[in-house]
Amino acid sequence: MRAANCEVVVLRNEKQAENILLLTALWDASTPAPKAGQFYMLRAWGADEAPLLSRPISLHSFDPELREISFLYEVKGTGTEKLAALGTGDHLQLTGPAGNGFPIEGKKVALAGGGIGTAPLLQLAKELKNAGAEVHFFAGFRDEPYRLAAFAAVCDNVQIATDTGRVGHHGFVTDLLDPEQFDVVYTCGPEIMMEKVARMCLAKGVRVYVSKEAKMACGLGACLGCTCKSKNGGVSVCKDGPVFEGSVFYG
Predict the structure, then answer these.
(1) Residue 225 has what pLDDT?
(2) What is the 3-class SS of 190-223, one letter each residue?
(3) Is 51 annotated as a binding residue?
(4) Most buried of the four, 2, 5, 189, 212, by CB within 10 Å?
(5) Per-residue pLDDT for 92 more than 80?
(6) Is 223 annotated as a binding residue?
(7) How far is CA 216 from CA 22, 68, 128, 142, in A?
(8) How many helices (H) and strands (E) does the chain have?
(9) Which of 116, 156, 89 is nearest to 16 (CA)?
(10) What's the pLDDT score for residue 241?
(11) Closest by Cα among 198, 191, 196 to 237
(12) In the chain, how long is the greatest CA-to-CA distance?
């Protein structure tokens, strides 16, 4: 599926936690419908303005009936600072959907997310639920969880871990996950967390999918800027991923 370029109107850009915002725009129905795990290149500044590159942001939620598309993102640089400055009625350039999304598999599944890595898991939960799966969500945060009500609305079970013990289990999200209870596990978050989740699953013979993150330039696989090492050589995160079977990296 070829990514499309379009300009959309911002509907809302709301704070969810410290430096975490949820941007919702009016989806252009003439462009391809996105799937969970895919991403867009977002740009809210001119071609001759800094930063040079657009920002890759994963799809958080998509509602074709309301024509709404949402992105959950962390403000941590010039590009995301400019995204954070957008208000209702402002315009935003989108290129996408890009990449390969999550396959929808299993009758009882677990989603394991860490921090802003929970972003692509909401749309995944919705698609899995629509397919008839029982969905369990495990999420880890440093201190302040966010978007829990949205996940609770589409998941059968939600369990939280925090580094500080402020909410839920005081410890790691991997402390809560028992892969043997599930047909499939999907994970996105810090590399160290995803590796542990993947290795836990593979040791028990449970299929696991990981959503990798890498710095991107084009987002279309042309520049090879997001190439990372796998068991069988280099893979392009934007073109070959960002979703991969865990065995590609950790088997």
Answers:
(1) 55
(2) CHHHHHHHHHHHHHCCCEEEEECCCCCCCCCCCC
(3) no
(4) 189
(5) yes
(6) yes
(7) 21, 25, 28, 26
(8) 6, 16
(9) 116
(10) 82
(11) 191
(12) 52
* Summary mean pLDDT of the chain: 93
Annotated ligand binding at 228? The verdict is: no
Query: Is 218 labelled as part of a ligand binding site?
Result: yes
58 a known binding residue?
A: yes
pLDDT of residue 223: 57
Residues 6+ apart with CB under 8 A from 156: 134, 135, 136
What domains appear along the chain, each with residue ranges and CATH number? 4-98 (2.40.30.10), 108-213+243-250 (3.40.50.80)
Residue 224 binned pLDDT confidence (cut-offs 50, 70, 90):
low
Q: How far is CA 212 from its chain centroid? A: 9
The response to whether 238 counts as a known ligand-binding position is yes
Tens digits of per-residue pLDDT, 97-122? 999 999 999 999 999 999 999 999 99
